[in-house]
Amino acid sequence: MDRTNANPGEVPSSDNLPESKPKSNKRTIIWIVVIIAVLAAACFIAFQYGVYKQRQEVYEEEVAYPADSVFVNGWASPEDYAHWKDAVFTIPEYNDIPIPFQRAIVKIFMDNKFIQNEENNQYFFTKIKDRAHKVIAYGNFTGQGDKEMAFLVEKQDFASSAIFIITDQGNLLYWKELNNELPTLKRFAKGALIFLNDMKLVPAPTDGIIRQNKNSKYVLIYNRETKTFDEHYQYTDEDVKNSKLEVEDDEVLIDELDTAIAEQP
Asked: What pTM was computed for the model?
């Protein structure tokens, strides 16, 4: 069997050396590292931008609420509202009043010093829970599409009261003292049948307010011609019945007079 004798001390030729790895593998690794770095930087920038936008939104929300008192003169400032609201709205039944109306009412109480009771001028919302929902009414009372509210406050003598009508911007539309009267309020809708100028039911031209006492009922409705709120007494069934009897009696009396005149010689 032939064998090739190799000299242990002989240096092998370059043709017999193992091949080195191509440089392209190193370039690939470098590109991968670069791409990962770029993606990481992009994610970091996007995250920082998102944080910036969130801060801007929070800032805008924080400055918007206190600033509105500058432009809406009919509202109490946030600070005054926070200070006085519990003194004005003393029972939970008033918590459902929308915040704009609450702030407007607080300003009315502050401006008129109802809470301080200066010059014997104290008014307050009823503290009777069953009565609380009967001293507030919401509607489009002027027919102009505004959000409007009527509310009744009681005087310290517990016998008199006052009625207010305001917009959600705090504009005062109507105010009247009601001496020796503690009525309830209720809204009626446009088109409801009411008595206006005579004893004849007609459709209401706008939303209105029913002011009811134990023995009488009035409607308060906006007059588009005079731009005022007018009161109209609401006749009872007994009133209508008595009126018909009076008319019938008058007709009988006229017939009797006509007959008596005709029978004269």
From this structure: 0.67
